[in-house]
Amino acid sequence: MKDDTIKTGRSSEDKIIEIDGLHKWFSDLHVLNDINLTVYRGERIVICGPSGSGKSTLIRCINRLEEHQKGRILVDGIELTGNLKNIEKIREEVGMVFQHFNLFPHLTILENLALGPIWVRKVPKKEAEETAMYYLEKVHIAEQAKKHPGQLSGGQQQRVAIARSLCMKPKIMLFDEPTSALDPEMVKEVLDVMINLAEEGMTMIVVSHEMGFAKSVAHRVLFMDFGQMVEENTPVAFFDHPQHERTKLFLSQILH
Amino acid sequence: MTKSGKNHIQTEGLKAPVIRIGALQWIKANLFNGVFNSILTLVTLFFLYKVIPPFARWALIDSLWLSSAEQCRAASGACWSIIPANIRFIIFGFYPHELHWRPFVAIIMLVSLLLYSKNRDHWNKSFGYIWIAGLLTMGILMKGGLFGLTPVESDQWGGLPLTLMLSFFGMFAAYPLGVLLALGRRSKMPAVKTICILYIELIRGVPLISLLFMSAVLFPLFLPEGLTVNKIIRAQAAIILFTAAYIAEVVRGGLQAITRGQYEAAESLGLNYVQRMRLIILPQALKIVIPPTVGILISAFKDTSLVVIIALYDVLKTTKSVLANPSWMGFSPEAYLFVALIYFVCCFSMSNYSRRLEKELHT
């Protein structure tokens, strides 16, 4: 299952993330077991799998919220090591959206968005706020700019969280179960924003069980179990003709 | 549920019932509901009847306010005269009598600066310069020796200016130091972490009195010959070091209350450690711990009275000295009530301000 066989005609400069022989342990628990993954610019990948399979840990390794113990991760040509400068440089280019939004509750929505550009990218305050308003409008939430996160619904908060990441003008967006903590009626508004983003050509890695989303925007779907990459395929093939027993079992469980 | 307004359920007419009760009903419901409560109410009333009228008679009706000590001895009420007769010594201690206007102006300046700072809209760039200029002026006023002011040695300082100085610098130096210690204790760097833990545990393990003794007796032994550090500064350092250790632990509690998600969100934006702490973590953590922090600051304020054991004349000690004067001996309740009032006004203002701050920062 070499990526290059699937993505023929791509040069190596198009690779934005290269993960090679990645292992990670939480004390004795082998959470990531020999993961190999190459992501190309503009590619959209959905990772699914049962809880505890290591999918969140995998994407958290990409911006080093988790440290890996073996193997190599290259993001945009920079290798992730203990070097703090490199880590911060990579985090500038990699946006992350969390399951529980993690907006900063003591700041207004506008301040949440402008903070990163002002302090990390050294953008002048006025310009950063203009950019912030632009992205707030994009996620249809501009009228809430002066409010605090606690005054917004879950769906609105998650859209703000996406806009906050976008303000940093990232090259890659990571989504860690972005809709799992939402009330059912709010899932769509968040997915719509993500679909828009996909249409604009953003490189995205999404940990999610939203099958509709995977089918409509993903180039590849990956299935993980027990820290291993079990199966990888195009969405249609993945859902209609799963190859492995574990994949079949998982799909039968989530599709009822 | 009624967000759209189209399919809203009828809610008018379903308001919470308003319950109004009269005074008599209130008394019945709260003071005489049952035999035990009725007895308790009666006993309390009897106790108040026994205590309040005699106290009011002593403190207000039979009291003397501007008399000599002899007249006081003849009267049966309180002798408040002890306060006006000795007010200058109680407030200024051994500061030269004709120069009392200087510490007086310094106190007024400090209080006005604090009142000015209450409004957080004033906290802008020039705010820091105002404070620095203010503190320098206060220092020059106290110490003299510049601009033709007569020099006054610091061993003549005492009373309220000393108390205010020890507590003001105690709090404002201990707070940032405490925050740094709290951050250090959670540091990933083993050396920093160990030093902070050692510091906090050692300081919290000894009483303030012993630290003051050490600053007065032990510390000078380690200094090279001929070099002395002013006694007030040594006491000040002891108070700062002591208070900081307690603040550190309170702040650490606040840091632990911040969820991991906040740290991760800040990290994933690419903020560095200092930015993460300054912009995201500390503003939230420090807000959570306002009530216990103010508790510590208030007790630090009152603990400054312990400097009496190394022979510094704070406002409590000057009051005691007045009582040692034969002509005013025996009027200690009046004098102590007066100092208690000074302490109360200060502590209550702090407490009030902290509540206001909590409300303002509530998000």
Order of helices and strands of chain B: HHHHHHHHHHHHHHH
Taken as a percent bin, the fraction of beta residues of chain B is under 5%
The count of DSSP E runs of length 2 or more, i.e. the number of strands of chain B, is 0
Largest interface: A-B, 26 and 20 residues
Shape of chain A: globular
- Counting helices, strands and paired strands, the structural category of chain A is alpha/beta
The major sheet of chain A is characterized as: 6 strands, mixed
Q: How would you write the strand order of the largest sheet of chain A?
A: 6-7-8-3-9-10
Beta-strand percentage range of chain A: 15-25%
Radius of gyration of chain B: 27 Å
Shape of chain B: globular
Reported for the largest beta sheet of chain B, the result is:
none
- Say what the CATH topology of the domain at 82-95 and 152-361 in chain B is: MetI-like fold
Distance between the termini of chain B: 25 Å
Total helical elements of chain B: 15
The count of strands of chain A amounts to 10
> What is the typical, i.e. mean, pLDDT of chain A?
89
How far the N terminus sits from the C terminus of chain A, by CA atoms, comes to: 29 Å
Secondary-structure element pattern of chain A, one letter each: HEEEHEEHEHHHEHEHEEHH
